[in-house]
Design a protein that fits this description.
Layout (H helix, E strand, L loop, with lengths): L2 H27 L3 H15 L1 E7 L4 E9 L2 E4 L2 H5 L6 E4 L6 E3 L2 E7 L4 E3 L11 H13 L7 H39 L6
Parallel strand pairs: 1-6
Antiparallel strand pairs: 1-2, 2-3, 3-4, 5-6, 6-7
Length: 192
């Protein structure tokens, strides 16, 4: 390579390192908000990602949430602290979504597990992790079906009914043949 190409590659490398340092410094100073905001901004339209501002007991912080079927799903620090990485599912009330820094956002109260409206009034509060676990258990539980013993008895009765019908059919045929033989022997007319 010539000297000009080496100089250009050196400038590109140095400026890249300076930009990475500035990004890491900004992310540190904003307490991780920059990365969360960029994840929502980049994936927001395609994957229904929203910015969730959680009003915690000690401090307010931001997480990435997603909207699915009228529910807001997110993982907060309280769930992470207890070792449960399950998503909290909270029903989205009317007038609770707003735009913040050109992305859609929600206020959530960590203590009551409720979405706050734009005037910061709580709408609903419940144990979102427990409800989500109950929903998953109901969806993945074994299907309630017929008992195998009952099913075998029904099959056996159906088989006996079919065998009985076949036997009666052949017996009626043999009775008709017996009546015809009797009528020919006696010479009389026996109505069929």
């Amino acid at each position: 390579m010539n000297e000009a190409a080496i100089t250009i590659l050196t400038y590109i490398g140095v400026y890249t390192l300076v930009l990475i340092f500035i990004y890491l410094l900004m992310n540190f100073l904003t307490n991780g908000f920059l990365t969360i905001y960029l994840r929502v901004k980049m994936l927001g339209k395609r994957k229904n990602r929203v910015l969730v501002m959680i009003k915690g007991r000690i401090q307010n912080y931001f997480v990435v949430g997603r909207v699915q079927g009228g529910d807001l799903l997110y993982i907060d620090n309280e769930a992470k602290a207890h070792g449960k990485k399950t998503e909290k599912r909270v029903k989205i009330p009317k007038d609770s979504i707003f735009r913040m820094l050109n992305v859609y956002a929600f206020y959530v109260d960590e203590g009551t597990n409720s979405i706050l409206t734009t005037n910061l009034k709580g709408v609903s509060g419940f144990d979102a992790i427990r409800i989500n676990d109950l929903l998953k258990r109901a969806l993945h539980s074994a299907k309630v079906g017929l008992d195998t013993k009952l099913l075998s008895w029904v099959f056996l009765l159906a088989l006996l009914a079919v065998v009985g019908i076949i036997i009666i059919y052949f017996k009626i045929g043999s009775i008709e043949m017996a009546l015809q033989v009797t009528s020919t022997i006696t010479g009389g007319d026996i109505p069929a």
